[in-house]
UniProtKB/TrEMBL annotation:
Organism listed in the record: Heterotrigona itama
Protein name listed in UniProt: Myosin motor domain-containing protein
TM segment ranges: none
Length: 140
């Protein structure tokens, strides 16, 4: 029984050593992650501070004040230009539709398409019956 106790003591010592190493590695990993996070935060803070310092020096300049007042007006002007660019297209489509709705052109179009109607209708009926047959085969 003395050797068994001795073996258990050795096992406990080895196991304790391995657990201590595992804990140390975990603490090191977590510390490195925390350090990387802090470095990133430090970089972000320095960037913000640098930009604020530059803004503080520029905000009193007359051209900057002018720019701040004019910049929103430029966006309004761009929006007006975009609306003007779209307006001619709308008028062309309106006139295109009104030409199609003119009675004489409509009658001519119907007269030209009327002979083809039975043929197209027959094709449509065949395709519908084919689709119904496919659906019934897949469901059945």
């Amino acid at each position: 029984s003395g050797t068994l106790e001795q073996l258990e003591a050795q096992r406990d010592e080895k196991l304790t050593g391995h657990i201590i190493l595992l804990q140390a590695r975990c603490r090191g990993y977590l510390a490195r992650r925390k350090l990387n996070t802090l470095k990133l935060q430090d970089l972000a803070v320095r960037c913000i501070q640098r930009n604020v310092r530059k803004w503080m020096s520029v905000r009193e300049w007359p051209w900057w004040r002018l720019y701040v007042k004019v910049a929103p007006l430029l966006n309004v002007h761009r929006t007006e230009d975009q609306l003007k660019a779209k307006t001619p297209r709308r008028s062309f489509t309106y006139f295109g539709i009104s030409k199609q709705l003119h009675p004489s052109s409509r009658v001519q179009q119907l007269a030209r398409l009327e002979p083809a109607y039975p043929k197209v209708r027959g094709k449509l009926i065949k395709r519908r019956s084919f689709v119904r047959a496919l659906v019934s085969c897949n469901l059945g």
